Each structure stands twice: as C-alpha cells, then as structure tokens.
Amino acid sequence: MDEKQDRKKACQFKPGVSGNPSGRRKRTPAEKKALEKLHKLAPEAVHQLELLLRNERTPSAVKVKICEIILDRTYGKAPATVTFASETDRAEESRTYILSMIERIKGEASLGSGNPGSD
Questions:
Q1: Three-state SS for 84?
Q2: What pLDDT sits at residue 20?
Q3: Of 62, 59, 37, which is closest to residue 49 (Cα–Cα)?
Q4: Hey, CA dihedral for 6, 10, 15, 20, is it positive or negative?
Q5: Does the predicted model carry a pTM greater than 0.85?
Q6: Distance CA 5, CA 49 (A)
C-alpha cells in the first residue's frame, strides 16, 4: 500500500465504533417547549401562506417568494452547481485581456501618429 492509501485507511471509521460517540446533544426543556409551540403554529402558517397566494391584491413578488418557500419545503431546494476556474484558466484569461489591451493601445497610437500635430 502506498502512503495515500495508508492515510485514507487510518481516517476511516473502525467497524463497530461510532463516528460520533457522544451522539447528538439533547434538547433542553425550553427548546422542546419552543419547538412544540412552533409545530402547533405550522398549520396556521401554511393557511396564511395559502390566503396570501390566492389574494389578488398580494404583490407578485410576494407570491413568488411564497411559491419558493412552499416548493423548497415540499420538494427540497434545487442543487446548486458551483464551478471553479483553475489558476491556469485565470492566468490565461488575464494574459488574453492584457494582450487585447496592448493591441488596442497600439491601434490608438498608430491612429494618433498620422496627425500633423503629433510629431
């Protein structure tokens, strides 16, 4: 086995041993009570969202936000795709930009050299 495989194996969970031996922290009685109150309010919150959504005087932006909330909670948020440019890509973009600026400056300089007052 090479060094990478040894390191990977050392970091893996051991059979029969929990990766989180302490487990999830227990909620305090105050947290339990607050969650219980929120759970009881949830049906009313959904009802209020429905009323706002169906009200013709509700602004479109609010309706869109309500739809977003309902869809995110019902179906989950759409996965976000993140792409990273490598250092090489950024360097090439910078190089291309700098060369285009040099060409532009050269072009402007050659236009200026034909003027009688530029000697």
A1: coil
A2: 75
A3: 62
A4: negative
A5: no
A6: 53
